[in-house]
Amino acid sequence: MAAGADEVAPSDTGPRLSDTDRLTAFSDGVFAIVITLLVIELRVPEYHEGELLAGLLDEGASYLAFLVSFVYVGVIWLNHHALVRLIRATTLALSWINLGILFGAVIIPFPTAVLASAFTHGNAADRRAAVALYALAAALMSAPWLVFFGYLRRHPTLLQSGIRPDYVRAQRLRPVTGLVLYGLSGLLGWFVDPLLGLIGIIVMISYHAVTSEGLPRWLTRR
Amino acid sequence: MAAGADEVAPSDTGPRLSDTDRLTAFSDGVFAIVITLLVIELRVPEYHEGELLAGLLDEGASYLAFLVSFVYVGVIWLNHHALVRLIRATTLALSWINLGILFGAVIIPFPTAVLASAFTHGNAADRRAAVALYALAAALMSAPWLVFFGYLRRHPTLLQSGIRPDYVRAQRLRPVTGLVLYGLSGLLGWFVDPLLGLIGIIVMISYHAVTSEGLPRWLTRR
Amino acid sequence: MAAGADEVAPSDTGPRLSDTDRLTAFSDGVFAIVITLLVIELRVPEYHEGELLAGLLDEGASYLAFLVSFVYVGVIWLNHHALVRLIRATTLALSWINLGILFGAVIIPFPTAVLASAFTHGNAADRRAAVALYALAAALMSAPWLVFFGYLRRHPTLLQSGIRPDYVRAQRLRPVTGLVLYGLSGLLGWFVDPLLGLIGIIVMISYHAVTSEGLPRWLTRR
Amino acid sequence: MAAGADEVAPSDTGPRLSDTDRLTAFSDGVFAIVITLLVIELRVPEYHEGELLAGLLDEGASYLAFLVSFVYVGVIWLNHHALVRLIRATTLALSWINLGILFGAVIIPFPTAVLASAFTHGNAADRRAAVALYALAAALMSAPWLVFFGYLRRHPTLLQSGIRPDYVRAQRLRPVTGLVLYGLSGLLGWFVDPLLGLIGIIVMISYHAVTSEGLPRWLTRR
Questions:
Q1: In whole angstroms, how far apart are CA C198 and each of A29, B96, C120, C133, C137?
Q2: C-alpha to C-alpha distance for C146 and C155, rounded to whole angstroms
Q3: I want to staple D170 with a disulfide (CB 3.0 to 4.6 A). Which of A188, B33, D125, D220 is the partner?
Q4: What is the pLDDT confidence band of residue A117, given thresholds at 50, 70 and 90?
Q5: How far apart are CA D190 and CA D139, in angstroms?
Q6: Averaged pLDDT of chain B
Q7: Nearest partner of B184 among B204, B163, B155, judged by Cα
Q8: pLDDT class for B213, splitting at 50, 70, 90?
Q9: Do residue A122 and residue B160 have CB atoms under 8 angstroms apart?
């Protein structure tokens, strides 16, 4: 980073701008740590001599939870990657909104661990609670993304050259979908069946994986 | 980082200068790890079948402590961001002062955990001790920032072009405020009421959040 | 990273390209964390007064497991380093393949801990299971590398200038060797002798260490 | 990092060169994680209601161990910083030597924890063992630094322009001093008195802190 290049297009009228280097580095650090910390939850099972294999096979739920969390954080990282490519500079407000996005990523291991625990040791009531918690967390995680897109709409000068404002507006569809459908999955899991809610969650993660570079242009450019 | 650009304006008379790349990368790494490690403290509660939800609801204090710590580290990161923007190069002494700042960030999880524990399991005496410890830690954390600004005053050649020395002098007000008011919060918490002290701490974190890009120019430029 | 340089050679026909900065930063973060997290498994042994030395000497297997894991992650990092040097840009698909590679690195501490546990506390059956698990994990880890090279073959425009496509084709030999020989080590460990399987694994790690800059040119350029 | 700039001055005769970006990023990541992971050892003490303060005050040894470890990793980071400034490119061999240096940093938390435990719970024999272990680890950590300087002497083309080979030769004095004097501190601690050995260790850490930018030029340029 060349000294002097840090402040982008300083102006006395709007909010102070800075380039996105440290925001990107900090976010990537957080995502890398979250995705790696997940392995701490995989533990060698307690076992009697000769029963290690059986002990390992009993831990299927933990492995699945680890895999889902890993993919989820990967999806968020890729989505964040695409998000930062939209902007040419950041402001103090945008840095705080970004901290909100990171907050969502950082907590993932917790509802995942609750989910794994409920499906291993809990009964139907525990599973309902765990699926509802997970869905609630995922729905709330969508909120700062929505705020981010809204902020960009109100401050189009932050956009990278070549990004059209109506493209940004259309992208807001994705966190809105997240808020609504994760919320719905939670209600399904709580009132109908935890498994149905869980399937809803996995479908939503897949949706964000497939659209992580933004909704396709043919869909958003009419 | 282009080879050969690493040493900035080498001189035989003053301290050896180096650019701020690695200082920034190292600091961002530390902040990213601290803010993510906090989630380790959120654990699935022990529960009997069917009582997971009740167990989760009992952990309110841990969630609040997690949230406060997350915001606090975020605030320090943003303040550090603004701090590094003041300088165009670093010296060995400045690197050590920066390690002092990082030391303050790294320990945050400890007083926070003590606070959470005292407000969950402790009595009034424990809360007094926890609030006083937190305030003491926060007050001491302000010290290396003060040293940093003082060092910049004595070595104005390190300043980024366009940063006026009197701007730096005015910024010293913020860590001084921190030292005094965090200290006062601790005394309040110890001698009067732990809750009062806690409120003082939260007010101070908010103050540093709002002023993380430096005190406003209208206030510091008279 | 200069604003505007992020999107490399945009085209409307092929997949969207982005430069490799964040992929590299994210991967390095993950490798750095995995290699450092290993130390968490080294614990001060429980001991009675005066018996600390004896307690430390009893933990030989943990130290060895730590050393092997450290070298293994180091090998993967160096191999990944060489891999990224092959390409001039990444795509969404390549980012997902890279996440598969990182998945392999992230889980290493788990089979290693199982191995250490089996050789300290387990009997012959446990060791067989542990060696087979380790070999299975290592064999599966080779798969995303194979997919990576295959993707590069089908998308030669992603190659760094100066890298010949037949060089990439020849490099596929290494993950194929990994898949086959790690798998064979697992079968050896399971059906013949766990120690034999373990030796096979260590030989394979050494092979990947020596060839981490790619197979020598005299071997791949005929 | 500009695409195409990754391979520095490729040559068919010597070892393949690559620039130091990823080596630096990876190393900084490892140092940042080690220095931050230390806080995990600071735990809220078990306490009865009203005895939190007393419990905290009993943990003095842990705080001291944390502080020493923090400074030590900081010293190694600064020394590594200065080390990388000597070179303009890296090779596969140099990357492996660097992994040896990182290995030394990564294990620090372990002998430190042993030291803290021995001085809190152990008797004289335990302290002797702990000081000897710490000194042994510190002495061995010096070895890869020595190898690094030796490698640079044999490959002067790797040196940054402006770095004189005899300057590098003189710097070898520092790891040699480390090897000898940490070793001597261990012998002192084992055969004479653990406290004497400990003082020797702290003196050595201070020595490396003060000389982390290299031995002064007036001393090495005669």
A1: 34, 45, 15, 11, 13
A2: 14
A3: D220
A4: confident
A5: 15
A6: 83
A7: B204
A8: low
A9: no
Close Cβ partners of A15 (under 8 Å, ≥ 6 residues apart)? A91, A92, A93, A155
The two three-digit tokens of residue C98, written as one number = 């890279």
Tokens, residue A10 = 């300083």
3-class DSSP assignment, residue D22 = helix
SS (H, E, C) C20-59: CHHHHHHHHHHHHHHHHHHHHHCCCCCCCCCCHHHHHHCC
Copy the structure tokens of residue D75.
Answer: 């010293």
Both tokens of C13, joined, read: 């026909």
Pairwise CA distance, residues B151 & B87, whole Å: 11
Tokens describing residue A135 = 């869905």
Q: Are B41 and B62 in contact (CB under 8 A)?
A: yes
Amino acid at position C79, single letter: N
Question: How far apart are the C-alpha atoms of A37 and C106, rounded to whole Å?
Answer: 9
- Note every long-range contact of C200-205, with CB atoms under 8 Å and residues 24 or more positions apart, other chains counting: C200/C135, C201/C131, C201/C134, C201/C135, C201/C138, C202/C68, C204/C138, C204/C178, C205/C68, C205/C71, C205/C72, C205/C75
Q: Testing the interface with B: which of A36, A101, A106, A120 to mutate, by most B Cβ within 10 A?
A: A106
Chains that touch C (3 or more CB pairs under 8 A): A, D
Question: Is D113–C21 a contact, with Cβ atoms under 8 angstroms apart?
Answer: no
Query: Is the CB of residue D65 less than 8 Å from the CB of residue D112?
Result: yes
Contact at 8 Å (CB) between D18 and C174?
Answer: no
Closest Cα in chain C to A158 = C3
Question: Which residues in chain B are contacts of A16 at CB distance < 8 A?
Answer: 213
ipTM score: 0.84
